[in-house]
């Protein structure tokens, strides 16, 4: 079975057709920069471009950088505030004719990793953190997702955690891998003290650079990169659409 997965991020909106039985993308990833400001009209127009690119007429799963409840956007940290209260799935369906399901973007990536990737053998508590424009999070217990955790918004150092340790902060402040890795370590130690997970999975585009900062992570918990790297969100969004 094939479903189009779309991953809406703070800097880019990416899509690909996914074989959800194998958890693999069967097309090249197609990416368009996220419009600024990331208003509903602008983002939905970009999603429509991706659907058109693949000449897609069937189900679509969309990973979205917000808490999602019954397809309605409840938060807006790296998108425009005008998203709050919008039934995004219905808006996308109305524009494209494709049945659409929305899920928090890192919840989507976590679903992919728990089904097909780094978490597939782990039945305890698994924490996933995706470091990008912000910090997105997902928590699983016995492979069951607790949705919309949004723990990148915990307070650290007198600020929101993602303003201290997101990958965008590393790029903006031109931090070395060691400097940034130590910040990531502080954040993950905080998470470790709250949830005592058996496994932590690092997601987001920076997961492919894991070897550059892994030596600065001094946790009791095992830490690994997402096996799907930055395709996890696309694969998980498609998988979520099937499960919905």
* Counted beta strands: 15
Terminus-to-terminus distance: 14 Å
**Rg value:** 17 Å
Question: What does the overall shape look like?
Answer: globular
Query: Would you state the CATH class of the largest domain?
Result: Alpha Beta
What is the H/E string? EEEEHEEEHEHEEEEEHHHEHEH
How many structural domains in the coordinates?
A: 2
Look at the structure and give the mean pLDDT: 96
> Based on helices, strands and strand pairing, what is the structural class?
alpha/beta
Enumerate the spans where pLDDT stays under 50 for 5 or more consecutive residues. Answer: none
What's the CATH H-level homologous superfamily of the largest domain? ATPase, nucleotide binding domain
CATH topology of the largest domain: Nucleotidyltransferase, domain 5
Strand content: 25-35%
Helix tally equals 8
Helix content: 25-40%
Largest sheet: 6 strands, mixed
CATH architecture of the largest domain: 2-Layer Sandwich
């Amino acid at each position: 079975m094939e479903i189009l997965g779309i991953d809406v991020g703070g800097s880019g909106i990416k899509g690909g057709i996914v074989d959800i039985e194998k958890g693999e993308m069967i097309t090249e990833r197609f990416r368009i920069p996220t419009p600024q400001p990331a208003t509903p009209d602008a983002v939905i127009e970009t999603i429509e471009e991706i659907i058109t690119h693949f000449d897609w007429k069937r189900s679509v799963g969309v990973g979205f950088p917000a808490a999602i409840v019954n397809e309605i956007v409840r938060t807006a940290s790296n998108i425009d505030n005008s998203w709050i209260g919008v039934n995004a799935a219905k808006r996308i369906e109305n524009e494209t004719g494709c049945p659409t399901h929305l899920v928090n973007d890192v919840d989507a990536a976590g679903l992919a990793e728990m089904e097909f990737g780094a978490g597939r053998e782990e039945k305890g508590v698994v924490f996933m953190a995706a470091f990008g424009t912000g910090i997105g999070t997902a928590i699983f217990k016995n492979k069951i997702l607790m949705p919309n955790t949004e723990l990148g918004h915990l307070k650290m150092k007198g600020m929101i955690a993602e303003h201290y340790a997101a990958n965008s902060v590393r790029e903006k402040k031109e931090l070395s891998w060691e400097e940034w890795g130590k910040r990531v370590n502080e954040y993950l130690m905080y998470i470790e003290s709250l949830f005592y997970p058996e496994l932590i999975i690092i997601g987001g585009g920076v997961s492919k650079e894991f070897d550059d900062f892994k030596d600065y992570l001094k946790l009791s918990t095992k830490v690994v990169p997402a096996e799907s790297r930055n395709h996890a969100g696309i694969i998980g969004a498609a998988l979520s659409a099937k499960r919905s």
